[in-house]
Specification:
Elements (H helix, E strand, L loop, with lengths): L1 H26 L13 H23 L4 H10 L1 H29 L2 H14 L6 H8 L2 H4 L1
């Protein structure tokens, strides 16, 4: 279990790295922020898509291990299933967070920034500590 927890922690922190890189590149002036600024229809469509995606992935990622099929898979295959589903769970939150961060700097639209911040906060609710990993692969009746 320690190995899986360590892998998930490495992935957890490495998925935050692109966000930090994007922020540094734009804030230091290496890339020009707001190059797509202008209130276009494309911006509205992207914002709508990202709002819906963000609102969809947050409950799914936070509730994923409560879904019966996933929970049974975690109980049956333990470490392999935890690694598979844990990576999916982190990707569900990290990919939209990276996209929202990039779109914020491209359009300088604070709505994208707020969506990225919300996803950033949610990521810490699924931090793969070793205790959490053990709890997630142990049936509830065995935990008592």
């Amino acid at each position: 279990m320690k190995k899986v927890s360590k892998i998930l922690k490495i992935v957890f922190w490495s998925e935050l790295l692109p966000v930090v890189t994007i922020i540094i590149l734009f804030e230091c002036g290496i890339l020009d922020p707001g190059i797509l600024k202008g209130g276009s229809t494309g911006e509205f469509i992207l914002l709508t898509i990202m709002e819906l995606a963000t609102l969809g992935v947050i409950p799914l990622a936070l509730y994923l291990f409560k879904i019966k099929r996933v929970r049974n898979d975690l109980y049956d295959r333990k470490e392999k299933a935890l690694q598979q589903w844990g990576l999916l769970r982190m990707d569900l939150l990290s990919v939209p967070m990276i996209i929202n961060t990039l779109l914020y700097y491209l359009f300088m639209n604070v709505s994208f920034g707020y969506l990225a911040i919300i996803l950033f906060i949610c990521v810490f609710f699924i931090y793969p500590s070793e205790g959490r990993c053990i709890d997630e692969v142990t049936p509830e009746e065995d935990q008592k």
